[in-house]
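Lecture 7, part B: from sequences to assemblies.

Below are the input chains for today's worked example.
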Amino acid sequence: MEALALLAQEADKAAAAASSAGFAYGLAAIGPGIGIGYLVGKSVEAMARQPEAAGMVRTTMFLGIAFTEALALIGFVVFILIGL
Amino acid sequence: MTTDATPMVTQLDGEAVEVKVTADMVKRGLWVAPAIIAVAAMIWGENGAWSAAFAVALVLVNFAVSALLISTTAKISLGLMMGATLFGYLIRLGLIMLAVLLVKDAGWISLPALGATIIVTHLGLLIWELKYVAISLAHSGIAPPRP
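Predicted structure of the full complex, as structure tokens:
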């Protein structure tokens, strides 16, 4: 009986660790989401104002998105190292 | 380059620069992949090598899907491009998570190797590409020789 209780306690701990890691990953994805939204919004504005600079704006926008996404990937890596 | 000034119908017909940038990054990624895999193998052993190869593939596919989404939707409208970029971000994160969840219990996976390689490859390729993009933006027409 005691062994069963101990097993249930361990399972609870593992579940709590997994759900908090998932929660942390969700939080880590919010910042880059806001960043990408702002970045793309401003880029669209720039392209609409100055269409001849669209190529340059698109290049910097794409790299900006990828750099911002790196933050979410770091959150994801922390999640897989702690939660999985 | 544009047909109208309204964002919902304005489309970009020019060269898909994202595809060009991504093609460069994928080329460089494939070029350095053996070195990354060798380093991972030295640190984490055979499992590390397989995990590093999987991580490099994930990063390159992620870049390619992102570029393809932007270039395809930019030809339709800027509004659609914006939506596709934001939802694409969520979908790509979900796909990466799914890909990792599918292999997490495999015998050949090493999670520290996978995580480290994802971050190092993603940031490394971006910084490498930034060197060429920054110089060609500052001095248009003057691009450093590509490897």
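Note for the exam: Residues 17-138 of chain B form one domain. Keep this in mind when comparing with the next example.
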